[in-house]
Amino acid sequence: MTDIDKTTKTELEAAAFRRLLQHLDEHKEVQNIDLMILADFCRNCLSKWLSAAASEHDVELDYEQAREWVYGMPYSEWKDKFQAPATPEQMAAFEAKQKAKS
Fold first, then answer.
1. DSSP 8-state class, residue 85
2. How many angstroms separate the CA atoms of 84 and 89, rounded?
3. Share of the chain above pLDDT 90, in %
4. Are 61 and 50 in contact (CB under 8 A)?
5. 84: left (phi over 0), alpha (psi -120 to 50) or beta
6. Position 1 pLDDT exceeds 80
7. Residue 70: is it exposed, middle or buried by C-beta count within 10 angstroms (0-12/13-18/19+)?
8. 8 Å CB contact between 45 and 102
9. Rg (the chain; Cα; Å)
């Protein structure tokens, strides 16, 4: 990797994170369960990581505020509008993934 100064690296990482959030927003059909099965993280994980990062920098950002940042709206609203119930197949795949991790 080329030498990139810390400020530029942070700006690039922030830009990539913003693009990830935009991509997820443009693909609301991708359910969190799908992300968990395939990538072992979801929008809620991003929210937790964002809240934890804020805490590490003494910035007040609780989990619900972080969720609103990640989802682009309150989580309850997103859930009502876009979250479909997990299918039995999705749940089986998720459970198999979790079992394989232990």
1. P
2. 13
3. 95
4. yes
5. beta
6. no
7. buried
8. no
9. 16
